Amino acid sequence: MNKDEAERCINIARRCISEGNTEKAEKFLKKSLALHESAAARDLLEGLNQTPPSTSSPSSPPSSSSPPSSSTASQSATSETRKRPNAGGGGTDSNSGKEATADMISAVNKVKGKKDYYTILGCSKTATESELKKAYRKLALALHPDKNCAPGANEAFKAVGNAYAVLSNSEKRARYDKYGLEDDSPSSSHRGHSHRYNRYYHDDEDISPEELFNMFFGGMQPNYRRGHRHTQFYSNYTRDQSTDANNASVISSLLQMSPLLLLILMSVLNSIFTEDPAWSYHRNGQYKVERATSWNSIRYYVKGDFTEKFTSQKILHLEYEIEKDYKQDLQIKCINNQRRKEQLMYQYRVTGNTRYRDYAESMDLASCKDYNNFKMPQYIRSNP
Description:
By secondary structure, this protein is mainly alpha-helical. It is built from 16 helices and 2 strands. Strands 1-2 form a two-stranded antiparallel ribbon. Helix 2 (about 20-35) runs antiparallel to helix 3, helix 8 (about 155-165) crosses helix 10 (about 210-215) and helix 13 runs antiparallel to helix 14. The longest helix has about 40 residues, at about 230-275.
């Protein structure tokens, strides 16, 4: 468990290094080493310690005594590359050499300097989920750093992603509607520009704006590590994509179950239209009137209107069927008892345990005697 958590901290630290946030990376690397000692965390931490402090801390002047390693220098260069488009004042991207158009600059200015998430997306507070998706789609495509090279495009792209990540999550949106930005929330202090990830609405396990973009437009899905929770956006996105598949699955299941459903329907219809038996061996709510057959006095029960529905001749034939059924039951009981006795005697011969023999000899075979002594009526047999 600690090893998995340590790996998670290393992955977060690597992401922070690529974003130029060395202080946060150092924090997670130390946490990883505290959980589980690993060479990867140790090497990354040593590389950070050799890297000159970030220029974002004016109180710490750069040191020239410890030159950075090649891997750290590459990470610093990557960080600087990502920061340049936002820091420059001109309309040209220093990396690509592309000239920023008026539409690119206008798209950035629509978002730049705005703090309210609804204002960033250009939606009202009553906007529906589909309206939020539509607004995010339009802005994300216009502000993506690969397409927009205007100064501040990267920050604007992140702001749009952060705004949608909050407003597309019902729980976070309700909290935002109640408290507003972190700066205004009762549990947080002022931290500056609200386009940054603030811990009141975002944490280290949230997806980045770039991952959000890839998910939204059908690209690479984020690699969630074990223990990370899925965002509300990812749930909504996968739910929309799987609706058709679920419908097809339901139809397929119904088609597979159709034979069983047909059998059940036929059974129900048969029970509705089939007439109840005329008699029963046991008294119950329907069969309350007790009778006995004319020859062997076999007890049976009928309904209250039995004598109204059956003539004397029909009753004789019915009682003949009752006695025949009764004799068959005696025969089945006799056969079962004889088999049981033979099994016990076989176990006695195999094991030598006299308890099997004693139990077999004590068995009551009265059903066999009753079956042999039972005489069917001759008159009904010859005239059924």
